[in-house]
Design brief:
Blueprint: E1 3-6, H1 12-23, E2 27-32, H2 36-48, E3 53-57, H3 66-81, E4 86-91, H4 106-127, E5 131-140, H5 153-173, E6 179-185, H6 198-206, H7 216-226, E7 238-241
Parallel strand pairs: 1-2, 1-4, 2-3, 4-5, 5-6, 6-7
Helix pairs in contact: 1-2, 1-7, 4-5
Length: 247
């Protein structure tokens, strides 16, 4: 059995990624920060369909906690699956902020940096020794790194940095046959940044070739598919999952 670790797996894209991976027969580790109830709902849903999953607490913006988290993952791998490695890492945890450049505070800037770029860098570093050779790292980025949408400059800048980091991960982990790719969602119906109201959704739908916003399961299924053997020759790529957003 392959095992996947999905950060930010209690809701939205992370939760649907976890479910899609479980549907494909993977063991699942999800992390949560503020909402253990929703995380355990995901675990129960996976158990109800015959899968196996656990939820672990993690602040993906606090790199000082990653060494201890790695030890916890190691212990849980042994206790739950009788293994000392896992196969796939999905760096998904994050949050949004809408503010023009002239109004963003340094604290807000640092918070976004810590969770969207510094966090994936040092979490991957901390977990690298637990990853099975031949595995896969997927970093969740954003279509806002391609399209300059006013009000999300720090978020988009760090997601763009994560895309660059993905290529370096592919290079440096290549000798271990560990692939690294990034997935860039477009406008998706999630709680990120406070969610969508009717007016905002209509605007985003009008900017998307398929005429609607995406659903989180449409991203989760792509991530799960990317982890499969059928896609084993895809590496060091950024794949936009956006329905044709601002093309």
């Amino acid at each position: 059995m392959k095992i996947v670790l999905v950060t930010g797996g209690s809701r939205g894209i992370g939760a649907h990624t976890a479910m899609a991976c479980a549907t494909r027969g993977m063991g699942v580790i999800i992390t949560y920060h503020h909402n253990p109830e929703k995380a355990h709902d995901v675990v129960r849903a996976i158990a109800d369909m015959g899968g196996k999953a656990i939820a672990l607490e993690l602040d993906a913006s606090n790199s000082r906690s990653f060494a201890e988290f790695s030890r916890t993952v190691s212990a849980q791998l042994d206790a739950v699956w009788g293994r000392n490695t896992f196969d796939f890492l999905v760096n998904n945890a994050g949050y949004g902020l809408y503010a023009p450049i002239t109004e963003v505070t340094e604290e807000q800037f640092d918070g976004l940096f810590n969770v969207h770029l510094k966090g994936p860098f040092f979490l991957t570093q901390a977990l690298a020794s637990l990853m099975q050779d031949g595995g896969h790292i997927v970093n969740v980025t954003s279509a806002t790194s391609r399209v300059a949408t006013a009000g999300v400059a720090p978020y988009a800048a760090f997601k763009g940095g994560l895309q660059v980091l993905t290529r370096y991960m592919a290079t440096e982990f290549g000798p271990r046959r560990i692939r690294a790719n990034s997935i860039a969602p477009g406008a998706i119906r999630t709680e990120l940044g406070g969610g969508l109201n009717d007016e905002f959704e209509a605007m985003l739908a009008g900017q998307t070739a398929l005429g609607r916003v995406g659903e989180p399961e449409e991203v989760g299924s792509v991530i799960a598919s990317l982890l499969s053997e059928e896609n084993r020759w895809i590496n060091a790529q950024n794949i936009e999952v956006a329905g044709g957003y601002i093309i």
